[in-house]
Amino acid sequence: MNTIRKKALALMLAATLSVGAVASVAHAEYPDKPITLLFPWAPGDPFEAVMRTLGERMGKELGQPVVVTSTVGAGGKKATAAAAKADADGYTLLNNWVAPQIAGKLFDPDLPYDNSSFAPIAGVLAIPFTVTVAETHPSNTMPEFIEWAKAEGKTLNFGVCAPQSVPRLVGEQFMRSAELEFNPIPFNGGCMGDNITGLLNGSLDVSVSVVPATRIMEGQVKHLLLLADESHPIAPDLATAADVDINIGWGAAALGWGGLVAPSGTPDDVLAKLRQVSADILQDEAFLKELGPLGKLIAYSSPSDFEALWSETEQLLKPRVEELKTSN
Amino acid sequence: MSDFFQTLASFPSLLSGVQLMFLVIGIGAGVVIGALPGVGPLLGVVMAIPFTFYMDPVSSMALLMGIYQGGSYGGALSATVIGIPGTPMAAATLLDAHPMALRGRASYAVTLATLASCIGGVISGLVLIAVAPALAAFAIKFGPAEAAAFALLGLTTIGALSGGSALKGWMMGLLGLLIAAIGLDPVSGESRFTFGSLYLDSGVALVPLLVGLFSISEILRQIEKPIRVHDTSSNVSASADAFRTLIQRPFNYLRSSALGVFIGILPGIGGVTAAFLSYRAAMVFKKPSDPDFGDGNTDGVIASEAANSAVAGGALIPMLALAIPGDPIVAVLMGGLMVQAIQPGPGMFLNHPEVIDGIFAVFILGAILLLPIGLLFVRLIIRLLRLPQWSIMCVVLMVSVVGTYSVSREILDIWTLIAFGVVGYLLRKADYPLAPIVVGFVLGPIFEKNFRRTGLISQGDFVGFIADRPITLAVLALILVFLLVPLFRYLPSQIDRKSP
User: Fold this and answer.
1) What is the pLDDT of residues B103-128, one digit of tens each?
2) Which of B457, B459, B461 to mutate to test the interface with A (most CBs of A within 10 A)?
3) What's A240's domain CATH number?
4) For the sheet containing A182-185, what is the strand order?
């Protein structure tokens, strides 16, 4: 009896100890090695600077470095697919973007991921698209431009960034709503390069663009309109679509948004830690200041708001993608 | 113009010792990086960016531009000595420099390439300083029609690059075009020939294609039939003969550099095209006493190296003046400036004149320093020649694989590398030229997207659209000349043969 009791006691003790040990592995030790943050665009991209700064700050808080790794290819789909496939242990995170995750998936349903592949950590960036013309263009405001276009009576050469992109979908929606005749010209370099050159050399009449890219070219191009219903801190004085009574009604879903996610299935306590740390940093004034002008593009949203934005965006883009698919 | 001389005169005071040190480190590192197959200046610049975060803007640019200049030149070393272009830009240099080395004139070939790189760099630097804003304003007028015409002009060099048989050359050129068609359609965004693979969506990557075709296939060939490359001359230093070409062939240096600068200014065309176009131009001016092109012709090496080095200065012009990067490396350099909170573009000349002057000074000095630093490596490289060939090939194989992987960290690139290695080996065995594949592969997409954009912009009315564009018309006329001249040479010879 005595020995049995002893054995039982020993077993219980061992069990308690081992449970404690397991628990301490899961709790106290995350993270016990460097965390990889997959970045889907090229090294040197302005948003890489944002992710790098964010990663540095998170690394300090977490006690382990957060290494930003650029996995370029297939319009961001490569990094997105890689993250969906990665171990859900909190050591691989993704800077997710609307283009590969939502638009890319709508264009190509066979992609090896969908919204359920990811667990949201935080919404990080919201980049508004703009309607842009060359500085030499006679019109200075959108109403003037619409008047000019109707007087010219020609089909406008309209630069639309990459062929299957969010700015294209948003831009074309706007042009239709404004009842302008246009001829979409895709530029596979995205929104920041060839299409601006196209405006300057007269190949394009008008283009979709983004503020940070063209800010550098001040004096050569001008923005006529922000393709959003509300004004944005990056260009607070710029007229919005709502200002000219063209309601595209897309809200935050019409922006080029990006954020931080982990593969779904990541343990809740790990997610909670990452959510807390990123929320603190993204709402810290010093962090925004450190980013300079890029800081104005930071738009923190909570994990639940960010996740809601995914399906909202999907709903809005879906009919436009279907339309584009059938017209091709 | 007085500004130009003022800028030049102020150079010595512009650079501090530290900045100079970073420039020298950059060039040295660049030469090594460029000489290693697969690892080009682009990767070098990207790898160096994190180090520049804590530097002053001019030091940062000194390091990055040193890597750019050294790397653009370094590819010529491996092209000459082991017949493997370290960078795509050196593929045209290889055609003549490697045959020279095989005949025991490695010193001459390498010195020639170094000298041509230096001259090309200096000339493009002078152009950069003198006319940056004015030329940038001109280049901006180049639309898709002009870009498509220039790419087409580049494609006509294929026939000239094919060594023996023009037919084989065109077959390889078309193969390059076909490979380039893999990936996303530039206008509709649909996947083409990708078999549903996300990897192929981005198209076949240039680095594994190039390294596989030239490097892996060369290794395979040498397993089968080892060749010994050795310099018979006891003098392992710079070749004085090479310096004499400066007096004998000044026109080639000038023409090739000018062409390189010009191509560099045009967005999205780049060093590979410049090297091949310049090579093609040199063929037009061939001296009767020289060996054939592709068989150790001095002008071929000068033309390719001067042009590809001159591209660097040209490509910086639209980046600094308009914030439009002329090539991918310059795009990363632009990122390097933005990290320093300096916005390239017209405002930069007003807001950061000291950085602009610093960049000018660094560029010219870098081009000049390339000569001594490059020649230092000549000794090293020639010493390398004395090693048994098998040991060099082992190192080349290792570096090719590691270098290719490090560019993208994509394991499938290694399979692409091996596949193109086998393809390259088989093509070499059947005596098909490899350079036209590279030309087709690089220029195909430039031509396609600009041609299709021209179609979209003109709404299908190509003829009416081009009629208003004199530059496009001039380039198209030049293409016609390039295509017809060989025909006119060929036909009379055929008639002569038949008449008796």
Assistant:
1) 888 888 888 999 999 999 999 999 88
2) B457
3) 3.40.190.10
4) A182-185, A156-159, A206-210, A129-134, A221-226
